[in-house]
Amino acid sequence: KKSSYLINPIGVYEIFGCETEENQLILCRGKGIFTSRSLVRAIGGSKKIGLFIATIGNSLEKNAENCSYPDNIILEAIGSAATEECAEYLHRQIIEPVIKENEAQKTTRLSPGWGSHKNSRNWNIAEQKIIFDLLNLGAKRINIKLAENYLMVPRKSVSAIVGIKKSTS
User: Which among 24, 95, 111, 158 is placed 20 to 30 Å from 44, CA to CA?
Assistant: First the structure.
């Protein structure tokens, strides 16, 4: 129960036009280009994509630092679950109205760093910077920063892409 006071979910999103060329997703007429064979396989063919960044803030993480080991593990798990729920909520809020309006279907939601790291076809975590550049003002507004290693601060944050394709039915 105490952990619920430490969770402050917030996020930003935007929907962009998208084109696919070979191993690239090109957003907003070239303002953002993602290069990944696996990403193109999962999202390619989408005429629009939704990008978002979400977080539960840093209160839980700060509190966990001062806890015993077992309590820290529990708070970490709660934080991870809450972060995923925040991302899922944003995903539904962004995509479902667009899908209904355009008789479209969504693709799988993916995040930078996704894929087999031994496989050169994964989505390189360095492309997280493109998401931050495209959602720049929003990321600053919700106080999420991108570290030099492309991980987000606070840690309990997620960025993702989801494609919107015309329904095949």
Answer: 158
